[in-house]
Amino acid sequence: MTRVVYESWGQRVVFGSGTARQDVAAEVTGLGASRVLVIAAEGERALAEDICKDVPVMATFGAVRPHVPTEVAQAVRAAAHEHAADLLLSVGGGSTTGTAKAAALTTGLPILAVPTTYAGSEATPVWGLTEDGHKRTGVDPKVLPRVVVYDATLMLSLPTRLSVTSGLNALAHCVDAWWAPRHNPISSALAVEGVRSLASALPRIVTDGQDVAARREILFGTYLGAVAFAGAGSGLHHKVCHVLGGAYDLEHAALHSVILPHVVGLNLPAAPDAARLLGSALDAGADPFGALIALYTRLEPPRSLSELGLAEGDLDRACDLVMAQVPDTNPRRVTRDEMRELLGRACRGDTPVPVPLTALRTEEQPR
Fold it and tell me: What b/e sequence results for 160-170 when a residue is b if at least 16 CB atoms lie within 10 Å of its CB, and e otherwise?
């Protein structure tokens, strides 16, 4: 590679354990905010109230929904206007952060994000809105949270299943960065360290969900993966997940955990650099794909789209929707038959497999 273009995004990030309340208060003061709109799903309202006890809160918006339907976006924007908010403070997972981003997109208000899952949205300038079963995404610096406050102890109450699926969502940010449209050596290096942290720590929280050190390591991996994703863009894995999530309202983190190994099996034979990086991150030697499957075996995440609610009869339409979004820069030319087979295996929960090359891009042909 003779020319590298990498765009970084300015953001303040605070890592702590048991310090969220004081860190949030200090950061709100640092931002000069005096009229804060808190955004938190009803299930996390009590947590948000505790974290924000020392913050000038004007109101709390609780109508958070996955994939941010446009009516939710309109409602949160109206709430920000009604209360003359000068700061959006989100406490929650990716859907909550996404709701804050929807408000920031049109109001320009700054966001202070307090994540409670490993979604990673807090470290990207990517927004997403869903209308009539179609999820639109875009990139805008206005939606990148100005400050992120991470606290490993906020993750201790996450059930094991959600911890695993959310952590694999973070892993997907890393892997997709190796073949995304703007993939570059800087994002790739961040992604390697992200995978290394996540693969090391996720099995430890399956064994002991109260392992704060492991939770903290996962947060580092989450952040690195999200920054890598922000720099490299959205690759095939995320295109598939965004289409399916928006069209069929599937559980976001679990959807990522199901799809990831199938996309890796499809792309890795055509992406030797990605294979090398994944092998390095997983200490896998000559079998990076096998190491990924071994990690899945240890974590026991959801394996099928059918258990998430996608029916076999939906697959032909789903395939058509996904094919319209396959990036031109993907390392192999994906045929409709290949994508239909991938979705079928994912729907049934079949063991992911490497897919032999049939349509390798001309510029990727081995010499």
Answer: ebbbbbbbbbb
Structure tokens at 234: 């959205």
C-alpha distances out from residue 258 to 64, 69, 213, 344, Å = 24, 23, 27, 12
Nearest-angstrom CA–CA distance, 31 and 320 = 46
Q: With b meaning 16 or more CB within 10 Å and e meaning fewer, what string describes 63-82?
A: ebebbbbeebbebbbebbee
Q: Kindly report, residue by residue over 161-185, the tens digit of the pLDDT.
A: 999 999 999 999 999 999 999 999 9
pLDDT in tens, 229-282: 999 999 999 999 999 999 999 999 999 999 999 999 999 999 999 999 999 999
* Phi/psi of residue 2, nearest 5 degrees: -95, -20
What is the distance of C-alpha 328 from the center of its chain?
A: 22
